[in-house]
Design goal:
Layout: E1 4-10, H1 16-25, E2 29-31, H2 35-44, H3 50-53, H4 55-75, E3 80-84, H5 87-97, H6 103-111, E4 116-120, H7 137-153, E5 158-160, H8 166-176
Parallel strand pairs: 1-3, 1-4, 2-3, 4-5
Helix pairs in contact: 1-8, 4-5, 5-6, 5-7
Length: 177
Amino acid sequence: MSKEIIVIIGGPGTGKSTIIDGLVAKGFCCYPEISRQVTLEAKKQGIEQLFLENPLLFSELLLEGRKKQYTDASDEKQEIVFIDRGIPDVLAYMHYIGDSYPAHFDLACRENVYTKIFILPPWEEIYVSDEARYENFEQAKLIHNHLVETYKSYGYELIEVPKDSLDNRILFILDQI
């Protein structure tokens, strides 16, 4: 069996991190979402919301972090690695806000190819805002659409994870691998 680098994507508040935590609890190798780390680092430097104040810098930092996650996942001993969000997410968010980005963003998506993409649909009943998730539910649905469009533009087939209990969502994902 060759290396499987599997990404869990979806708009804000769809349960990605909860699923990643559940997979970790089952002993799988998983990499967490890094945008909160980037945001916290910026706050330490006095920038309250880096994505809103300097979206290109925020996206550059995310891109570098996600490229590193891809490289690290490729080097893992485990045959299956799950990642909370992938490199194309960076472009999808730039599309969402209507900003342009340098050509190396596109190149990073073409050079770092994932095995499978699982997408979590918008789910209003579990959606919660917090200090790092400032989007409302309507914005989360728009982001979802940009994610679908962006990943499909790179040739990915998206596997939609049904709205269900955490255990059933994890079972669905594992059954697809």
